[in-house]
Amino acid sequence: MAVQTDGGRDSAASTLPYNDLELVETAVQTTVGPRLQGQTCRDCGQNMLGRRYVCSGCMSSELDQSLFGPFGSLYSYTVVRVSPKFAEAQLMGYVDLDEGVRLLALISADPDVLRCDLPVELVIGSDWYFKTSETKSAAETDD
Which residues make Cβ contacts (< 8 Å) with residue 136, sequence separation at least 6? Predict the structure, then answer.
């Protein structure tokens, strides 16, 4: 049974997630190469991907714009065989960026060479993804 608060609202409504993420372009090409946009909390130092209204660690609103990447390591990965966006199987993986941010991203690599802790690098093309040091991006193979 739901507990009622003033006004007849369900108390569970106060525990709903807070929408703290503003929609912005995640990957950007900078003068020093591809980077992911994010923020760093001035109060607790946590790095976060995307543009946020509050820190996901301490709820502070004291945030600075930051750029992350392009290097990280593969934390874990899987092959996605069913997708509404892609006709063929796709490699997806959790990448730990050098700045401490973990994100889910497309991986461009031979599945046989993938292993946890493998170094990866951000690539921006028509979409953004990570490649391993054993993989050349489409731009590198067009030479």
Answer: none
Residue 105 near residue 128, CB atoms below 8 Å: yes
Torsion of the alpha carbons at 29, 100, 76 and 21, rounded to the nearest 10: -70
- Looking at the chain, the number of H-run helices and the number of E-run strands are 1, 11
SS3 29: strand
Q: What is the pLDDT along the chain (143 residues), one digit of tens a residue?
A: 444 444 444 445 556 565 666 667 889 999 999 999 999 999 999 999 988 889 989 999 999 999 999 999 999 999 988 877 778 888 999 999 999 999 999 999 988 889 999 999 999 988 899 998 754 444 444 44
CA distance 60 to 99: 20
Burial 68-84 (b: 16+ CB within 10 A, else e): bbbebebbebeeeeeee
Please report, for residues 21, 71, 119, 122, the alpha-carbon distance to residue 98 in angstroms, rounded to integers and kept in the order given: 22, 6, 10, 12
The model carries a pTM of 0.75
